[in-house]
Write a structure and sequence with these properties.
Elements lengths: L2 H14 L5 E5 H8 L3 H13 L3 E4 L7 E6 L3 H14 L3 H8 L5 H14 L1 E5 L5 E8 L14 H10 L4 E4 L4 E4 L2 E6 L5 E6 L13 H12 L14 E8 L2 E6 L5 H7 L19 E6 L3 E6 L12 E6 L20 E8 L2 E7 L10 H10 L2 H7 L5 E3 L5 H6 L7 H10 L6 E7 L2 H15 L4 E7 L15 E7 L4 H10 L4 H5 L2 H16 L3 H17 L3 E3 L1 E10 L2 E2 L15 E2 L5
Parallel strand pairs: 5-14, 18-19, 18-20
Antiparallel strand pairs: 1-3, 2-3, 4-5, 6-7, 8-9, 9-11, 10-11, 12-13, 13-14, 15-22, 16-20, 16-21, 17-22, 23-24
Pfam families: SBP_bac_5 (PF00496), SgrR_N (PF12793)
Keywords: DNA-binding
GO biological process, one term: peptide transport
């Protein structure tokens, strides 16, 4: 332990035992409190005295009482130590202190202090570095592009890795990236990519066609079991035609393959090493349980990122810290433009049709549909940043608000099932908002005699299918990436999607057939019709119950430039920059 941590333990012992700022205690008792030898206790007390934290008056003789006088009351002392931890960038110790049994008023001040630590910081001055520190209240799941499925992790992976092409959703076109050009044969079944020369991975290795082939083969590997493996099904062969030329041979013509090679799942990884090594604008320099550190890639094949360093820190779930890109607040800072974002995709409930249970009964699913009155839930839980959803697309939810729902309708549908009081298991992520939704639904279900058992599980178990295999239904969310059509298809094809996992039997086959037609369709209007048909079918069959979209509004200071948020709610780290104050 560090000296600061010993001092904190001493102050916590003082608080727990209601000692005054002058505390009488033996060296042996102190050794027990701080879990060290009597000799080390004396060394620690001398060092704390030198730091002017306390005065130590040792007792005469072995076993006699010593007197400790703290120079500050416990609130002031804890806050001072907390500031020192942050000044020394010992965020681990600061976060551990937040987890201690402190009074609410002290914790409130610590959270406020921590808030100022995140956001943009400039290190220097001689070697000025732009550093962005971002808090997250949960552990990160995988950043491996072949497996990444969570929106924030997908965004971080985009900063580490690159794809052959990039898709421009607004212009509906594919732009060159790692491949500077590509050809599609007359029959549409052979696609040739021409790779840029001189592109380097973060480990210094030059990218070649062998790395692209390896990336594809790894995604296709049955043993690897990537949730995006379905994207490889239409490819019959891959051939390296030279170090910077590669060909993909398709089983049939489909433009969707260009979408696949633009997706994060096919981001290129080096043939000989896959541990977070990419070609992206940022490289991983540190990755522990509590922090991910990204440094600007100075050898990036395109324009270097303006930010020099990004740190993503895990903080306690109850932390009142919500900054992502904002600068520390300043009284003199002019307000910049607000960026509005309404989540594309939505939270939803779906049912496990792999399990032999009452969820196969339409009337039961309708009972849950009637119970899950989102407009009422938003009102009762005061969740004003939510929009009740009737579609995965917010513009459609606005045009078609939810129909009126009543407990009487829910009770009538439940009665039609012949329900006998059995317990139904509802799974959801062990997160604040998911818990609130699940508890609200459980309470409402009780009013019509429906027994629901809540099963929260951590995000780290997202890919473990056994964790939710015996669930009857799940409360989940889907946030779409900028490539909307691909994101929609992924919702049904991606193995980590609970709609893909749970939608089984004839219902699943029917939906997958229409998804297949959507994949082969190139006309934009016809694509919309297929997506409308799928959503309508899911609604009528009560297979996916849309709940709400999340509305986000971010206000950025005027000095934060080039901010444009993607559908995940993140700004592209490689583009944002801080305009320095000029005196």
């Amino acid at each position: 332990m560090k000296l600061l941590e010993y001092y904190v333990s001493l102050r916590l012992h003082q608080k727990e035992n209601d000692y005054t700022d002058t505390m009488k205690i033996t060296v042996q008792e102190l050794a027990d409190v701080l879990c060290c030898t009597e000799r080390n206790i004396k060394i620690l007390l001398k060092r704390m005295t030198a730091e002017n934290w306390l005065t130590w008056k040792p007792g005469r003789g072995r076993g006699n009482t010593s007197t400790l006088t703290f120079h500050h009351d416990i609130r002031t002392g804890i806050l001072e130590i907390f500031h020192q931890m942050l000044e020394k960038e010992d965020l681990n110790a600061a976060i551990n202190l937040l987890k201690e049994n402190l009074s609410e008023d002290i914790k409130e001040e610590l959270h406020h202090t921590l808030n100022t630590y995140f956001g943009y910081q400039e290190k220097g001055p001689e070697t000025a570095k732009d550093v962005l520190k971002i808090p997250m209240t949960r552990k990160l799941s995988t950043l491996d592009p072949a497996f990444v499925s969570v929106s924030s992790e997908s965004h971080f992976a985009r900063q580490i890795y690159d794809t052959l092409l990039q898709y421009d959703e607004n212009e509906k076109r594919f732009d060159a990236h790692l491949a500077h050009d590509y050809d599609v044969s007359a029959d549409g079944r052979t696609i040739t990519f021409y790779l840029r020369k001189g592109v380097m991975f973060h480990n210094g290795k030059h990218m070649t066609s062998k790395d692209v082939r390896y990336t594809f083969q790894r995604l296709k590997d049955q043993n690897a079991n990537s949730p995006c493996q379905w994207q490889t099904a239409l490819v019959s062969d891959v051939r390296c035609m030279g170090p910077y030329t590669i060909q993909f041979f398709l089983k049939r013509k489909t433009r969707m393959f260009l979408h696949f090679v633009s997706s994060i799942s096919m981001a290129v990884q080096p043939e000989d090493e896959t541990e977070l090594i990419g070609t992206g604008p940022f490289s991983v320099t540190e990755y522990r349980e509590d922090v991910l550190v990204l440094e600007a890639n100075t050898h990036y094949f395109k324009e270097r990122a303006w930010l020099d360093r990004i740190e993503i820190w895990q903080i306690p779930q109850n932390s009142k810290v919500d900054l992502h890109y904002e600068l520390p607040s300043s009284a003199n800072e002019q307000a910049g433009e607000a960026v509005d974002l309404l989540q594309v995709g939505c939270n939803y409930i779906t049912f496990n049709l792999n399990k032999d249970s009452i969820v196969h009964n339409w009337h039961f699913r309708d009972a849950i549909y009637q119970l899950f009155d989102i407009q009422l839930m938003i009102k009762e839980l005061k969740k004003d940043k939510l929009l009740a959803a009737t579609s995965l697309f917010p513009e459609k939810s606005i045009e078609n608000p939810p129909a009126e729902k009543t407990l009487q309708q829910a009770a009538e549908s439940l009665q039609a099932t012949g329900y006998n009081g059995e317990i139904l298991k509802v799974s959801f992520f062990d997160m604040k908002y998911s818990k609130e939704d699940a508890m609200w639904l459980k309470k409402r279900a009780e009013s019509i005699g429906l027994n629901l058992m809540l099963h929260p599980f951590p995000l780290t178990e997202y890919y473990n299918e056994e964790v939710t295999a015996d669930s009857d239904m799940i409360i989940m969310g889907e946030m779409f990436e900028n490539n909307i059509v691909l994101a929609f298809i992924n919702f049904f094809k991606h193995k980590a999607s609970f709609v893909n996992r749970f939608l089984a039997g004839k219902e699943g086959e029917h939906v997958q057939r229409i998804v297949g037609l959507l994949m082969d369709e190139e006309d934009e209007e016809k694509q919309k019709k297929y997506m409308d048909e799928i959503e309508h079918d899911l609604h009528e069959r009560r297979l996916v119950l849309n709940s709400y979209h999340t509305y986000r509004k971010k206000n950025f200071p005027a000095s934060l430039k080039n901010v444009s948020m993607n559908t995940f709610g993140w700004a592209d780290f490689r583009k944002i920059w801080i305009k320095p104050a000029v005196k």
